[in-house]
């Protein structure tokens, strides 16, 4: 139990609150007019990327993936607190994806991250196995 403003809150309730907050940010990230405002919040981007990398919860992870994908063309990995881990996690998720939708989302996220000129060093450090896995997925997809 955690006490928040003199009210006892369980860990499950905190996770539910976190899910709702991430969902709201996710929904806001789908609106093009919000991109500039969201990307200016560097702490928010750091928190979202950290939650994605830490794989706290499946729902949170996929909502964070949506946010990162939507804002990816503006994200410079060297300016985040876990740029290298983010790319590793994306390729890890890509390799273990259980649906075509997850594969498509990971590929789209990587595509958008590759648009930013400052991300080459992170994308050039990708392991050969991950590149081969990506090629195989692309060749086998429709």
What would your notes on this structure say?
Helix 1 runs parallel beside helix 4, helix 3 (42-54) crosses helix 4 (58-71) and helix 5 (83-96) runs antiparallel to helix 6 (100-113). It is built from eight helices and two strands. With 142 residues, the chain is mainly alpha-helical. The model has no long low-confidence stretch (mean pLDDT 88). The longest helix is centred in the N-terminal third of the chain and has 19 residues, at 11-29.
Summarize the structure.
This protein is mainly alpha-helical and 142 residues long. Helices cover 69% and strands 4% of the residues.
Element layout with pairings:
Elements: E1 2-4, E2 7-9, H1 11-29, H2 35-40, H3 42-54, H4 58-71, H5 83-96, H6 100-113, H7 120-124, H8 128-140
Antiparallel strand pairs: 1-2
Helix pairs in contact: 1-4, 3-4, 3-5, 4-6, 5-6
Topology as a string of helices (H) and strands (E): EEHHHHHHHH
Task: Report mean pLDDT, rounded to a whole number.
Answer: 88
How many H/I helical runs? 8
Which residues form runs of ≥5 with pLDDT under 50?
none
General form: globular
Structural class: mainly alpha
Strand content: under 5%
Radius of gyration: 16 Å
- How are strands sequenced across the largest beta sheet? 1-2
Q: Give the fraction of residues assigned to helices.
A: 55-70%
- Biggest sheet descriptor: 2 strands, antiparallel
Comma- or semicolon-separated keywords:
4% strand, 142 residues, mainly alpha, 8 helices, 69% helix
